[in-house]
Design brief:
Elements lengths: L8 H9 L7 H8 L5 H27 L6 H12 L6 E7 L5 E10 L9 H10 L4 E7 L9 H15 L4 E8 L6 E2 H4 L3
Parallel strand pairs: 3-4
Antiparallel strand pairs: 1-2, 1-3, 4-5
Helix pairs in contact: 1-3, 2-3, 3-4, 5-6
């Protein structure tokens, strides 16, 4: 958990809009943490604050509305969390019967530059623990190419089969690859 995730929304907004001369001790420490000029560090800090606010607001929106009523919302949510990652990560969005977000375990499995090991048993256990009716799978291709590999297709089939045995439906599987538009297995007809 980073320092920003522990700050209240009000504190984040205050720091985001504060004049540069009124930065907090945390910002000064952030500036001193590396060798970049203070102005660059301040810009990076404010961008990180804005990102944190956006993530919180988008997550709140996902918990209020049916997530899959808008694939665009899912894509934006996943890009905010995943687009910057330099390694493979596999995550799951756990949904209720109305497709509202129960919980997002976005780093359920962490891999290397080119692969990650996903254990279907752990995904099934987590779906049952969250009492999920459905899930959306998601992972990162740090290569920048969002095209599904044959291994991605096989894993999706294995997970769909295992989860179907406990009445949990896999609604989609998104691949996020940097700034490229995330690919949806459902839209490609792979689910």
């Amino acid at each position: 958990m980073n320092e920003l995730s522990r700050m209240s929304r009000d504190a984040l907004v205050s720091e985001l809009v504060a004049p540069v001369c009124a930065v907090s001790e945390a910002t000064m420490a952030y500036c001193a943490a590396d060798d970049t000029p203070a102005s660059q560090a301040e810009i990076a800090r404010r961008l990180a604050i804005a990102r944190e606010i956006l993530l919180r607001d988008l997550e709140a929106q996902c918990q209020r509305t049916a997530v899959l009523d808008s694939p665009k919302t899912v894509r934006e949510y996943l890009m905010l969390h995943y687009a910057h990652l330099p390694h493979e990560v596999f995550g799951v969005l756990f949904l209720d019967a109305q497709n509202r977000l129960i919980e997002a375990e976005l780093q359920m499995f962490r891999g290397t530059l080119t692969s990650t090991s996903v254990h279907p048993r752990e995904v099934v256990k987590a779906a049952l623990a969250h009492n999920a009716a459905a899930i959306v799978l998601c992972h990162v291709h740090p290569s920048g190419t969002p095209d599904p590999s044959r291994a991605d297709e096989v894993l999706t089939t294995q997970l769909s089969t295992a989860l179907a045995m406990v009445d949990v439906k896999v609604l989609d599987h998104f691949i996020v690859a940097g700034a490229a538009t995330p690919v949806s297995f459902a839209e490609l007809g792979l689910l």
